[in-house]
Amino acid sequence: MPIIELVILLACLVLLSNVLSHYLVAIPVSLIQVGLGLGVALLLNVQVKLQTDWFMLVFIAPMLYNDGRQFPKQELWKLRGAIFANAIVLVFITTILGGFLIHVLIPTIPLAVSIALAAILSPTDPVAVQSISEGVKLPKEILHLVSGESLINDASGLIGFKYALAAAVTGSFAIGKAVGDFFYISLVGLAVGLALITLIQVIRDVLRREGINDTVFNVVLQILTPFAIYFIAEDWFQASGVVAVVAAGVLSHIQNSHEAEDAPELRLVTEKVWNIIVYLLNGIVFLILGIELPVATKGTIEGTHTNTFHAIFDVLIVWGILLLIRVAWTYGYMLFSWLRDRAKTKPSVRIATLSGLSGVRGAITMAGVFTIPTVIASGDAFPERALVLFIAAGVIILSLVSAAGILPLMAAKSLPFMTRGSSLDEDDGVIVTDDNETDTPDEAKPQQVSYKQARIYVLRLAVQNIEEHRRAENQRAAYDLILDQQFQIRRLEVASQTADELQPMLTDEMQLRLVALAGERQAVKEMLAHGETSKLAARAYLRRIDEREQRLSQTIHRPGLPTLRTLRILYNRAVQGFRLWIAPADSDKLRAEQLEIQRVASKAAIKTLSQYLKQANVDEQQFDQQALYHLIVNYRNRIENAKADHSLSRADYERQRQTLRIKSLGAERAGVQHLLESGQISLRTASKLRQFINYSENLLMLNDIEADDE
User: Fold this and answer.
1) N or C: which end of the chain has fewer CB within 10 A?
2) CA–CA separation, 67 vs 60, rounded Å?
């Protein structure tokens, strides 16, 4: 497949995987991507021709640079000694001890290849480690330790992999030369990364002083930075491009924190662009893993010297070795810390096991495995390459499966499971404070509300503000805006409810809607009986009522995928529109009749709801007031839009809508400030809320500018 078509296909599959993960919440998105890649490889015979140089440059350089940019500074900096020990000493132990054990237990794999395999399997996905560790509530020092270690061990693991791979290819290994080379490529890579990022920052400052401060230009410059640094470090200085980009990312993060005040737009846009890049790169790597699975397993499955079931057992052995090393290291660290300070958490095998299982292998591991050559220096085939690929792919998948399946059982609850590039909700139920401490709302800060709850609060203030400024002349614009806000509120309410809380709320709302639809039907029948409308218009409206009732009944008794229901709605509306289009009646007259039916039926629905709630056997308090208000606003909006005397021009309507929206945004800002000052939200949540309001205001002004240009 040509490269352009392949890139488009992979990008589309990344999007599809995140859509599927919305419904398959128990399965990590990375596993879904592996499955999609495998399906594409088997069904479409898609292949990816990997080359070591460009694969390292395109995938590893930007992802490690972004890891450096996300490096936390405060609490993690206090544990820098332990973190660097974890990231270097633990990787060294995993590489040497793990490689030796792999060679002993799987003798067919040479020692150098075993060490290379252990080295590339030592890095862990930092986002997965962070999300899982927070979910299982590890002690704070362990949480910071495993989180910080996972941000750095990519570089040390890749360096160890590079040396072991070189020994496997050349067949020789001189300890003195290796140590010298290690210090050279590491220290020079570090120096090159720091020097280049400093030079780039100086150039950016000079350009800014010269008036070249265009946001797009600066974002593109920052995106090209890791590629340039990696290339220069590897090709010009023969140093470690991995160390260079990590060091550059960390220093860039420190420098950017100082310039955030004078370039806020640049900072925000840069973060969003990096999110997109990592989102795509991480997804594509796991898709490529799925695509390469047949290649990785074919040699092992079809080979006569290795039994397939034995190869699967080898995967379990390697995964078990890595898990035991990580568990023993964490337990030893806890024991050492407890002996030094008895106030800290006592050593616990359970906690050590949880931290060990959180070490999910991710995109960096798979990207490195793909760089294993097919031949060695002598021209012979690389020893046991097929088995190594099989084991590496199997350990990655097994680490994902075990974290998703075993950890919830040990923690006795469902856990957040995220990897690099995961498509995340705005609020995951965890409050991350500005000093990088992670607390749950229920324990550390019970008075604080979640992001969704805060959004609902400010949106209700916006609705209240619009109601206060609603007048006879701007009612249509006001109700349109209120309905938009109400839809957002209802979505947030549904998303923030548990299944047990959601079901009675939806049942009550459906009951109110069915009562209102009965009022509409009765009103239409009375209009038809009194000759106030034509049979064609009445039957079309009654058909729509029947369809809405049917959808409501299906929602209550047999809820299906919202997407399928939406498609059915669109199809029915298209058919109905086509029938009206080919109808012999005058279209303008028919349209006027339908609007009149809509106006009368909507008034009747509101009246019927009022009468229903006044009945002696009905408790009005049992119904959700927000749902009732949302339904009434919906009908009032339909009444306003059905009025025949729309003398207001489109420009005046948009002006009224814009005025009301600006005032409501002011109310939202005031609400955020109130929540922040009263301690009900953190600075991080306030920042996200204000950012959303700013985006809404910018979009409002952009639409106004486009309207002026027309």
Assistant:
1) C
2) 10
Q: By mean pLDDT, which of 68-77, 120-129, 289-298, 301-310 is the weakest?
A: 68-77
Q: State phi, psi for 420 to the nearest 5 degrees.
A: -50, 135
Hey, what are 92's tokens? Answer: 């060294």
Residue 586 has φ and ψ, to the nearest 5°, of: -65, 125
Token code pair at residue 307: 């039994």
Residue 435, classified by CB atoms within 10 Å of its CB into exposed (0-12), middle (13-18) or buried (19+), is: exposed
What tokens appear for 526 in the block?
């009375």
Which ranges constitute the DSSP H helices of 530-649?
535-557, 562-582, 587-613, 625-642
pLDDT tens digits for range 392-430 = 888 988 888 887 777 667 665 555 556 665 654 444 433
Confirm if 87 and 186 have CB atoms less than 8 A apart.
no
* 569 vs 573: CA distance, rounded Å: 6
The DSSP line for 476-538 is HHHHHHHHHHHHHHHHHHHHHS-HHHHHHHHHHHHHHHHHHHHHHHHHHHHHHHTTSS-HHHH
Say if CB 90 and CB 327 are below 8 A apart: no
d(CA 105, CA 40): 35
Report the distance separating Cα 115 and Cα 595, nearest Å. 76
Evaluate whether 71 touches 151 at the Cβ level (below 8 Å): yes
Kindly state the DSSP code that residue 413 receives in the 8-state scheme.
S
241-259 and 264-302 are packed helices; what angle lies between their axes, rounded to 10 degrees?
160
- DSSP, residue by residue, 354-399: HHHHT----HHHHHHHTT--SB-TTSSBPTTHHHHHHHHHHHHHHH
Beta carbons of 641 and 666 less than 8 angstroms apart:
no
Predicted TM-score (pTM) above 0.85: no
- Rounded CA gap, 269 and 215, in Å? 8
Burial of 370 by CB count in 10 Å (0-12 exposed, 13-18 middle, 19+ buried)? buried
pLDDT (0 to 100) of residue 437: 42
**Amino acid (1-letter code) at residue 250:** V
Nearest to 630 by CA among 606, 613, 647, 658: 606
Q: Residue 247: which of 284, 194, 299, 211 has the closest Cα?
A: 194
Helices 499-529 & 535-557 angle (0-180, nearest 10): 160
Cα distance between residue 7 and residue 55, in whole Å: 14
Residues 83 and 148: beta-carbon distance below 8 Å: yes
Identify the helix (H) or strand (E) that includes residue 631.
Answer: helix 625-642
Report whether 604 contacts 639 (CB < 8 A): no
Q: In 3-state terms, what secondary structure has residue 583?
A: coil
Residues whose CB falls within 8 Å of the CB of residue 438, separated by 6 or more in sequence, listed in order: 134, 143, 430, 431, 432
Between CA 675 and CA 683, with CA 679 as vertex, the angle to 5 degrees is 80
| Chain centre to alpha carbon of residue 258 | 27
DSSP three-state, residue 630 = helix
Q: In whole angstroms, what is the distance from residue 376 CA to residue 598 CA?
A: 78
